[in-house]
């Protein structure tokens, strides 16, 4: 395959990214606590308190992440011209938003490390978010974006 040329690589990598992310959300929504302390602050406190509306939101985010993975699978085949355009735009927009969300959080965490911003998270969670969670969001954004670009290039060729 040499340089990655097949859209399937990005689609399946993105699908796995979504699936892993959804499983983590479902685990936490179901009461699992392993790794929750890596999020810190408000989210960690809400996970401990198990407030019903917050837990419902965690379930919902899990389903949204799962739907994101299923959405990527739509890139596996060409559709009508209009549907192809809609899928491309949605995939590209999702990728850009995911990447920018992670990047904005990385920047805010760096500002917190520099003492320019006060965040209500401990150093343990700050490091986890800076070196794992936010780059993980950015990876998902990159995978969605690359899958969308590959999809567009293959349906236009």
Feature tags:
mainly alpha
Structure description:
With 157 residues, the protein is mainly alpha-helical. Helix content is 76%, strand content 0%. The two termini are 19 Å apart. The model has no long low-confidence stretch (mean pLDDT 94).
Multimeric state of these chains? Answer: single chain
DSSP helix fraction: over 70%
Order of helices and strands: HHHHH
Largest β sheet strand count, sense and barrel closure: none
Q: What gap, in angstroms, lies between the N and C termini? A: 19 Å
Helix-strand layout with pairing:
Elements: H1 7-29, H2 41-49, H3 52-73, H4 81-113, H5 123-155
Helix pairs in contact: 1-3, 1-5, 4-5
Task: Describe the structure concisely for a colleague.
By secondary structure, this protein is an all-alpha fold. It has helices spanning 7-29, 41-49, 52-73, 81-113, 123-155.
């Amino acid at each position: 395959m040499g340089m990655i040329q097949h859209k399937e690589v990005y689609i399946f990598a993105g699908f796995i990214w979504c699936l892993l992310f959804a499983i983590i959300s479902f685990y936490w929504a179901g009461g699992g606590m392993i790794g929750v302390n890596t999020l810190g602050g408000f989210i960690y406190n809400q996970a401990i308190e198990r407030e019903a509306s917050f837990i419902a939101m965690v379930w919902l985010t899990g389903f949204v992440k799962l739907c994101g993975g299923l959405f990527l699978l739509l890139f596996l085949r060409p559709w009508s011209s209009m549907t192809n355009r809609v899928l491309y735009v949605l995939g590209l927009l999702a990728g850009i938003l995911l990447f920018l969300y992670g990047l904005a959080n990385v920047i805010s965490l760096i500002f917190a490390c520099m003492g320019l911003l006060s965040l209500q998270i401990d150093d343990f969670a700050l490091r986890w978010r800076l070196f794992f969670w936010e780059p993980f969001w950015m990876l998902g954004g990159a995978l969605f974006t690359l899958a969308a670009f590959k999809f567009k290039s293959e349906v236009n060729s």
